[in-house]
Amino acid sequence: MIDLIDVSLKYDNQTTAIDDINFKVDDGEFVFIVGSSGAGKSSIIKLLLRERVANSGTVLVNGYNLNRIKKRKIPEFRRKLGVVFQDFRLIPTLNVFDNVAFSLRVTDASNRYIRSRVPYILNLMGLSNKAKRFPHEISGGEQQRVALARALVNDPPLIIADEPTGNIDPELSYEIVELLQGINECGTTIVMVTHEHELVRDFGGRIVNIEHGRVVFDGIVPAGGHYESK
């Protein structure tokens, strides 16, 4: 599903963002990638979405070698991912239904399929009664659930959640992670990137801790447990 092999990334000012990291995510896993601001988490996301290309090493995602992928294939690659962002990135002029449907329309899905698939996903996210609302008419937690519904509607094998709890109330953060866990239990691979160590410790599971562009911990931690750098 994901395999980063001896990967390094430097920006134009020669700042090292990722320093020779290795980790693999298998089909069906739920993995937290944690680290403080500036640790390299955003750079990993950019590599996984092919927004940046590694200076060295190999980045494999969903069967694509992102070092060698042709530019014309990048949109196809991205359509097979579900991505959830911290700032939701909903289209303000579209209601909830159409925000979710947008992900299907760009793949030329039929109107008949959209009319059946979108209500199903909205119901799954507890948003059936919000379908006609616009983003500014719903809460931050609801907006994040819409973003999650949009990521899920194409039934992607992999969802990458980039700080999905960063702009919502702390109590709602647990709700979002529980929703992601439920999606994972149905077979979707989940990679959640976050700086919220306490939240991650409360849930437990596989945790990859990044510091200064390096993997300093990668292991399974029980709920309520602790993890330490190498």
Quick summary:
The chain has 230 residues and is an alpha/beta fold.
What portion of the residues fall into strands of 2 or more residues? 25-35%
Q: Which range best describes the helical content: under 10%, 10-25%, 25-40%, 40-55%, 55-70% or over 70%?
A: 25-40%
Calculate the mean pLDDT score and round it. 93
Instruction: Report the count of strand segments.
Output: 10
* Sheet/helix structural class: alpha/beta
The Cα radius of gyration reads 18 Å
Trace the largest sheet across and list its strands.
6-7-8-3-9-10
Low-confidence stretches: none
Shape: globular
Largest sheet: number of strands, sense, barrel closure: 6 strands, mixed
Distance between the termini: 25 Å
H/E topology pattern: EEEHEEHEHHHEHEHEE
Query: Can you count the helices?
Result: 7
Oligomer: single chain
Task: Note the topology.
Blueprint: E1 2-10, E2 16-25, E3 30-34, H1 41-48, E4 56-61, E5 64-65, H2 74-79, E6 81-84, H3 96-105, H4 111-124, H5 140-152, E7 158-162, H6 170-185, E8 189-194, H7 197-203, E9 205-211, E10 214-221
Helix pairs in contact: 3-4, 3-5, 4-5, 5-6
Describe this entry's structure for a reader.
It contains seven helices and ten strands. The protein has helices at residues 41-48, 74-79, 96-105, 111-124, 140-152, 170-185, 197-203, and strands at 2-10, 16-25, 30-34, 56-61, 64-65, 81-84, 158-162, 189-194, 205-211, 214-221. The strands form two sheets. The chain has a six-stranded mixed β-sheet, with helices on both faces. Strand 9 (205-211) and strand 10 form a beta hairpin. The longest helix has 16 residues, at 170-185.
